[in-house]
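Researcher: Please generate the 3D structure of the following complex. Treat every line as part of one assembly.
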Amino acid sequence: MKRSTCLKKHKRTWPPTLLLLVLSTVWLLTLSACLKMEAKRPEITLIIKSTTSNFYENMINGVKAAANEYNLDYRVEGPANEEDYRMQNELILAAVKRKTSAILLSAVSYEYSVDAVEQAVAARIPVLILDSDVDSDGPALRIGTDNEAAGRQAAAYLYERARGGAPLVVGVINFSIQTENGQARERGVRGFFQDKKDVTIYPTVTVDSLPASAEAGAKRLLSEHPDINALVTFNEWTTLGVGQAVADLDRTDTLSLIGFDSNPSSVDLLERGLMTALIVQNPFSMGYLGVERARAVLAGARYPKREMIYTETTVVTRELLADLAVQKLVFPIDEP
Amino acid sequence: MRVGRKKRDVGVRLPLFGYLSVVVCLLMILSIGAGSLAYSSFYQYNLLNSTKINSQQVIQQAKEMLDIQSRNMAAAMQMVRTLVETDGLGDISASNRSLNQALLMRQDILGVMIYSEAGKLLTYGSHGLLLTPDEMSRSTDRYRPFTYAGEKMEQIYISPPHVQRLFQSYYPWVISLVSRVKLPGSEAEIFLVMDFDFTEISRYINRIGVGEAGYCFVVNERNELVFHPHQQLLHAGLKEENLHPVAHLENGFLQQDDTIYTVVALDSVNWRVVGKSRTGDLIDRNLSQLYITLSYVFIVSAILMVFVFALFRHHVSRPARDLIAAMQAFERENEDFSYRSRSRILELDRLSASFAGLVDRVKRLVQEVREEEISLRKTELKALQTQINPHFLYNTLDSILWMCEQDRQREAIPMIEALAALFRISISKGRDLITIADEKRHVENYLKIQSIRYDGAFHYAFEVDPVCLPYLCNKITLQPLVENALYHGIEGMIDEGEIIIRIEDGGDLIRMSVEDNGIGMSAERVAEILSDQATESVGIGVSNVNSRIKIFFGDEYGLSIKSLEGEGTCVMVTFPKITEYEDRR
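Model: Done. Output below.
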């Protein structure tokens, strides 16, 4: 039986060697690609409700502080008018298109911005809600004021202050039905007063989120119900408007006025004794935490569905303004 | 005995390929592991180092900036002090105006106030702003620092940053410098307060980035926060700034886990600037990136390795295995085996070539041995044939019979004895070699018989050196030669023939010869006999002797014939002296 071992043809060694070369090149390229990965800095886009608001100025300061600390880039965008949800949606989609790393959103409309938000989430861009919410499961996290609690806080202060005096007759001036915040705050107020027997509370007057509109609305309310000895209103613009109305009507001494937020004009009213108290939110913290958590989400953190982080609200009176801590809250340092 | 694979006790043996794979993989893992360990610790070290250096630089700059600011503020303060000390207060409007002037000195002076020792606002300078109507705002109760304003008159106290609420609708962040001033011409002391704009300073501090992820803040001598870029967060309780680490640190570094604190004290005031930098995130990020990169590298390297191994297998492992398999096949059956292999590896190639050569040589040797064996068997067979020569037996028995019939039994006895002896030695218990003495006896017996039969046809003689007798020789060496001499030499003669048998000592060999004076042989006949091609039974005997000697002792010994036609023949054999041998069978 003859056994032969075949002579290996030289040609057959070429393919493995060639493949080796090809793979080595691939390997080198992968390596260099990995090394290049570091270079990109994340960019966080903050989309707010209005570019002229003091509340949002503080939020922007918070975002700046966090961006500075964590070495991130940030962009701030928003419509000029707080009611313009269409513009906001456009801004969201533009941010998605330019492949921003994360979006921090303070939504004008609870309902009409859902689609834009979900498009962003589908494009693997995390969306975090600051202050004003949307009705969607898409956002990774929500940071804001516990609005019902804030409402209750306002009502409680009024109630305490009126203790031992005349029974409360309360008027409520709220802004756009669209925004959940205002509605929640009102629910808080009404909820607190619901079981209080000696409190009368009139139906809400709804105005636009503009000082002029609020002023007109307040004046109308007070003329309709002159027995009102307490007024509550729920945001920066309406506070300004209502405050102005009360000052104009010279009702300062007979009326307790609780407003929201720390617009310098409102604070001035407080300092001048034309406002009883302000419920001050903490937008700086919202902005800072927004960036901090966005960073965590980008690194892989996951929060439960519709998870909420509450930033507290403070009741600020003129007396309290002497407190350094309150000053830091109410008088933020301006940034150019 | 089959030479199989013996198991050695010296540890486990791995195939070449497996061994290489394990070694290379281990090497790869070790080097990647060691490399990444080295890299990450090196990176961490570098990062901490560079963060330290960077923090130092940044904090140093902050300190210098703040020192300059506070020196400027103190200088401005000093100027106003001098003004008050020399000019006094005078009337309110005058002092108001002069203080207003003072305000114009610098843009960042937002108010100059003079309070009585009891805390009442006496006069002030402003940029045309109206004073707030709130009495409370005007009082100095809120200026707790007054209690710290120092005993010495020279001392200037710097308040923590706060909001100035003195004027209507104007609430800037300021730092107040407070100093006691003695009015000229009296023992009365007043408090001089200057408010300086803090916004610029706070923006500056806010913007300071320390290291890759950090910020800086300011603490006072009681380790309380004077200023912090995230103060709103701190007061909301959403963040904490643990000040313990820097409590006792005046100037220098502190590293706690992955956080680095850099502290520097201001010259002008008892405050310290603290830079805080966290490297943890960065290290984590870098490490995870390192792991990702390593994974990629590892995976691709692994794939590369597979191909390298395939290549190795192709060039080394397979040729080696082929060689081994061929050797094993050869062990089993070396009949029609041939092997040729080329390998790119030098050593394997040489091994294969040597093995192929070995195979060829072995095959040749095996062939030779086989041929020799065959030859020997053939020759022995022929010898056997020669021994049992029927003609000789018939004729001898015939002679014996004739003698017995002639009533000459006595004469028959020696013939019978000789015949018996002849055959006894012939058989010789099957041995190949017998003593020369026995061989001589054998041929003597033969000659006895033949001389009785061919009475008077010839005579014979022995010339034997007795020294040779104990040595050994092939059996049936002389008898065929004598037989040949008789039938081819003497038989044709008319006269009486002569046969001389000689056994001589030739040093290392023995020489035996049978000489007759017969008719001789032609050269062709001689050649025929020597070439082992003779076909006649007697001719076979002579050439057979030659063959057997050559087979037994080697080609250099054997038979030679000298013959002259008509004169006679001499047949000579030579073989070496041996005294014992092993039966190869």
